[in-house]
Amino acid sequence: MWYDFIIYTPTYVTFFWCIVLLSSFRVNNRAKHFLGIFMFAAFVLYLSHAVFFQRQLEVYSVFDPLYIAASLSVYPLYFWYIKLLTIESEINFRNLWLLFPALLTGMASAILYLLMAPEERILYIKHNLLREVFSEPESLKITIQKWIFIGSRIIFAFQVVIFAALGSRLVVRYNKRIANFYSNLESKTILWVNLLLFSFVFTSLTSTVFNIIGKAVFFDNTWLLLIPSSLFSILLFLIGLQGYMQNYSVRDLELDERQTPEQEYRKYNNAALKTGLLDLFSNEKIYKQPDLKITQVSAQLQTNRTYISNLINTEFKCTFSEFVNRYRMEEAKRMLCKKDSTLYSLDFIAEKSGFGSISTFIRVFKDLEGITPGRFRDKNIQTKNSSF
Questions:
Q1: pLDDT tens figures, 73-101
Q2: Residue 125: which residues within 8 A CB-CB, separation 6 or more?
Q3: Looking at the DSSP assignment, which residues form a beta bridge with residue 222?
Q4: Taking every pair of C-alpha atoms in the chain, what is the biggest distance, in angstroms?
Q5: 11-42 pLDDT tens trace
Q6: Counting beta carbons within 10 angstroms of the beta carbon of residue 78, is it exposed (0 to 12), middle (13 to 18) or buried (19 or more)?
Q7: pLDDT (tens digit, 9 = 90+) per residue, 141-165?
Q8: Cα 246 from chain centre
C-alpha cells in the first residue's frame, strides 16, 4: 500500500490540477486553462511511470510510447503556457510545431511496438528498461526501439536547456514591461514562473540521472523511490497552485494599454518633459494614487506614454514602478520621522504614501532601505531620544 501511494502520488497531483485548471476556462483566463493541458500531459507521463513500477510489462508496452510522447511534451507545453502569460493573449496554434518531436517520436515507438511480437516487447522492456542481461541477440526492431528511446532522452535534454532559457527571457521581458506601465505590481509579476522553471530543470535533470541509472534500481527500494516521487509531486503541486492563483497575464495588460483615451499630444523636448514630470510628482504628488499607471501620467502631461517610459528609463535609470516607489518611499519616511509617528499604523502610512498594500510597502521599503519600516521608525526614535 505504501509503495502504491508513492508511485501514484504524482498522478493524483497532476490529475487534480488538470481538472481544476481546465474547469477555470469559464473565467476567461487562457493561460490558466492551458496550464491544465500541461497537467494532463504530466498526468499521462506519471501514470506511465506508475504502470512501469507496478511491473505490468505487457501493459507498459502500450504506455511506453505514451511516456515518450508525454515526456517530450511537458517542456514545450510549459513554454507555451509562459508565452500565454507574457506575449500571447490568445492560444496560437502555430505553437503546435513545438510538439512535433513528441508526436513523431511517440508515433515511431508505437508503430514499432505494433510490429513487434509479444515476446519481443517483453524482451525489449526487460533488456533495455529493466537492464536484465540476456545472451540471445536483439532483433532489428528491438535495436531500433532502443535507439528511439535514447534519441528521445537526448531531445529531452536539449528541451530542458532551450525552453528554460527562452522561458526565462520571456518572463524577464514581461516583468520589465509591466514595471514600465504600472506603479503597483502586486499580483502582476510572474517571478514565481522563473523559480519553478529552474526547479523544473533541476527535477528534470534528476529524472535524466534516474533514467541513466535505470528504473529497476527503485523496484526493491521503496525509500529510494520516495525521493523522485516527492520532488516531482511537490514541484507539480506548486506549479498548479501558483498557476491557479495567477489571474493576471499579458491579456489584461493589453486591455489596459488599449484603454488610453485619445488626445492631442503636446510637443516637448527632453528637458521640458523632465521638468513637467518632476513637477507632477513633487508638487502635485500624483504618486499617492495606489493604482497609478503610466497612461495617467502621460494624460496629465498630454504626451505619449512611450516618451515618459523612455525618459524614466534613460534619465533616472529605473522602471516606472521603481520611479514612483521612490517618491512613495520618501513620503513614508517623512511620516515615519515625525514626532507623533507612533500614532500612525504602518497600514495608514502605506495608504497615505500611495502603496497598494502593507505587504508591498514593507517589501519595497526593505529593498530600498535594507530594513523594515517598523525598524526604521524605532531607530529614528532611538536616535532622537539619545540626542537629549
A1: 999 999 999 999 999 988 899 999 999 99
A2: 57, 60, 61, 64
A3: none
A4: 94
A5: 999 999 999 999 876 556 788 889 999 999 99
A6: buried
A7: 989 999 999 999 899 888 988 988 8
A8: 10
For residue 93, count other CB atoms closer than 10 A to its CB: 7
Q: What residues contact 313, with CB distance under 8 A and at least 6 apart?
A: 180, 319
pTM over 0.85: yes
Judged by DSSP in three states, 39 sits in: helix
Non-local (6+) Cβ contacts of 103 within 8 A are 69
- Closest Cα partner for 361 from 256, 257, 287, 254? 287
Q: How does DSSP classify residue 182?
A: B
Nine cell digits for residue 124: 525489449
Mean pLDDT computed over 203-230: 67
pLDDT at site 388: 47
Helix (H, G, I), strand (E, B) or coil at 70: helix
Query: Span 216-244, mean pLDDT?
Result: 78
Around 373, how many Cα atoms within 13 Å sit in the side-chain half-sphere? Answer: 29
Task: List b or e across 176-204, with b for residues whose CB sees 16 or more CB atoms inside 10 angstroms.
Answer: ebbbbbbbbbeebbbebbbebbeebbebb
The whole-angstrom separation of Cα 333 and Cα 380 is 10
- Check residue 357 and report its DSSP letter: -
Quick one: which of 83, 76, 123 has its CA closest to 104?
76
- Length of the chain, please? 388
> What is the average pLDDT across 52-62?
82
Give one DSSP letter per residue of 3-31, joined into a string: HHHHHHHHHHHHHHHHHHHHGGGGGT-HH
User: Contact at 8 Å (CB) between 246 and 85?
Assistant: yes
Work out the mean pLDDT of the chain and round it to a whole number. Answer: 85
Cα 103 from Cα 73, distance rounded (Å):
8
pLDDT at 313 over 70: yes
